[in-house]
Amino acid sequence: MAKRYIPEPFRIKMVERIKMLTREERIEKIKEAKYNLFNLRAEDVYIDLLTDSGTNAMSDEQWSGVMKGDEAYAGGKSYFRLVEAGRDIFGYEFIQPVHQGRGAEKVLFPTKLSEGKVAISNMFFDTTRAHVELAGARAIDCVVEEAKDPTHRAPFKGNMDVEKFEKLVNEHEGKVGLVVMTITNNSAGGQPVSVENMRAVSEVCKRYNIPLCIDAARFAENAHFVKEREEEFKNSSLKEITREMFSYADMFIMSAKKDAITNMGGLIGIKDDANLYQLVKGNCISYEGFITYGGLSGRDLEALAIGLYEGLDEEYLNYRVGQLEYLASILDDNEIAYQAPVGGHGLFVDAKKMFPHIPYNEFPGQALAVELYIEAGIRTCDIGSYMLGNDPDTGEQLQADFEFTRLAVARRVYTQAHFDIMAEALIAIKDRAKDVKGYKITWEPPILRHFQASLEPIE
Ligand code: F0G
Asked: Hey, whose CA ends up nearest to atom 10 of ligand 1?
């Protein structure tokens, strides 16, 4: 039976109109977009689940902060307010704003990675992997085995496989430049990482003298799951859990467009290494902008400082994760498989299971994304072999561990009726699944291809 929908702990003060095209119009639009959903115009989308990044609704508090933003080039008030918030929440000495997550990757990674080095992660996100490669190094994923079986329910499917991780460290002796723990683990389905796992990874890193970095885009959702699922923390506040989690790492990168509930922004945090901070400041000035604005407007810095706290609000997180649990429970009733239990920022439908007749190199996750648009004007994305792309050394198509279609949910944006439409669309597609065809790529760029590639259905 469907789970109860947890009511929104806010009311709506401003609205944005959305419209539904006809099915025929949508078939035409997606063809014009070369079957790449990034090519669609947003106004032709009814429910936009392409990403939870930068699509959030800011609060009245954040919008009043916008009016107070200090636009000074150097030393503005909003910068100091943000640094104070970052120090308070994460317990790190140095907080550097940047324009978004990949700005943080570009500024930080070359200080630790170069030709011949490797970086190991529970799982890299696509841009994070790209920046490891752009720095000349190679990226290796090392997630726990249980993450690879979508129907196997486990509390922390985002964890690093610690045993395998230590083996990799030995195999690449002296070459591991950085370890990155992605919390929550986006590519594995928004799955959380336990504090216990972070402790174990940190212990290995210390023994081998390897720096440990957190990719913190969804740190607050991760803290919510730790509180719910890790006995030791059931009475801790989410801020206490965050502090504890970050105490095991040396640095973090963060796309603040997610859990900090803003539309733009990013952060780098460095626990205490003043030399590293000096390198980061240098790169930041070259690539992002002066230290005290890092590619953002003063008003963005202000909204971000406020959003960091709002993102950690327990009532809000119960509602947010509750929305996804509601959708997941309807899919359970209809035997539609997804990465279970459902993650923090999205529901990842198991497209391999939905379309067993479509092989990985014909991109089942992308096929389902196209169908969701045709069915109900819902825009999603592939998190599978289509996104993973080709081996940078051989050019061969890589096979991903999963073939997911991600329904990523913007924060404080959609209501229960929208979730019902998502469920109905998936049920309708399941009923005609055997008629859905795979895709081939007709053009692709060398890196991060899924943003730009052109595709065509295989007849
Ligand atoms: N790390 C993770 C775990 C992410 O999910 C993202 C972005 C980034 C880094 C890069 O941050 O976009 O601010 O430059 N993820 C978005 C997504 C785009 O849709 O999952 P960015």
From this structure: 101
CB-based contacts of 42, cutoff 8 Å, min separation 6: 48
pLDDT tens, 328-372? Answer: 999 999 999 999 999 999 999 999 999 999 999 999 999 999 999
Residue pLDDT, tens place only, 272-331: 999 999 999 999 999 999 999 999 999 999 999 999 999 999 999 999 999 999 999 999
Q: What type of residue is 5?
A: Y
Residue with CA nearest ligand 1 atom 13: 101
**Other beta carbons within 10 Å of 374:** 17
Neighbours of 311 (CB within 10 A): 25
User: In the structure, how many helices (H) and strands (E) does the chain have?
Assistant: 16, 14
Q: Which two tokens stand for residue 290?
A: 């002066």
**Residue 393 pLDDT:** 86
Say how far apart CA 123 and CA 330 lie, in whole Å.
29
Q: What are phi and psi of 40, to 5 degrees?
A: -70, 150
> How far, in Å, is the centroid of ligand 1 from the Cα of 194?
20
Q: Is residue 138 classed as helix, strand or coil in its secondary structure? A: strand
Query: Alpha helix locations (H) across 139-273?
Result: 162-171, 195-208, 219-229, 238-247
Determine what percent of the chain falls in helix, strand and coil, rounding each to the nearest 5: 45, 15, 40
Cβ distance 30 to 36 under 8 Å? no
Domains in the chain, CATH or no CATH each? 23-52+313-457 (3.90.1150.10), 60-310 (3.40.640.10)
Shortest CA distance to 270 belongs to which of 448, 112, 49, 145? 112
pLDDT digits (tens, 9 = 90+) for 37-86: 999 999 999 999 999 999 999 999 999 999 999 999 999 999 999 999 99
Burial class (CB in 10 A: 0-12, 13-18, 19+), 24: exposed
Report CA 210 to chain centroid distance, whole Å.
Answer: 24
CB-based contact 247:91 (threshold 8 Å): yes
Q: What lines the ligand 1 site, CB under 6 Å?
A: 51, 53, 100-102, 125, 127-128, 182, 186, 215, 217, 255, 257, 266, 408
Active site residue 73: yes
Give the number of the atom of ligand 1 that is nearest the alpha carbon of residue 100.
13
| 298: CB partners within 8 A, 6+ apart | 69, 70, 71, 72, 76, 77, 78, 79
Q: Three-state DSSP class for 34?
A: coil
pLDDT digits (tens, 9 = 90+) for 177-187: 999 999 999 99
Whole-prediction pTM = 0.96
- Structural tokens at position 4: 């109860």
Cα(253)–Cα(266) distance, integer angstroms: 8
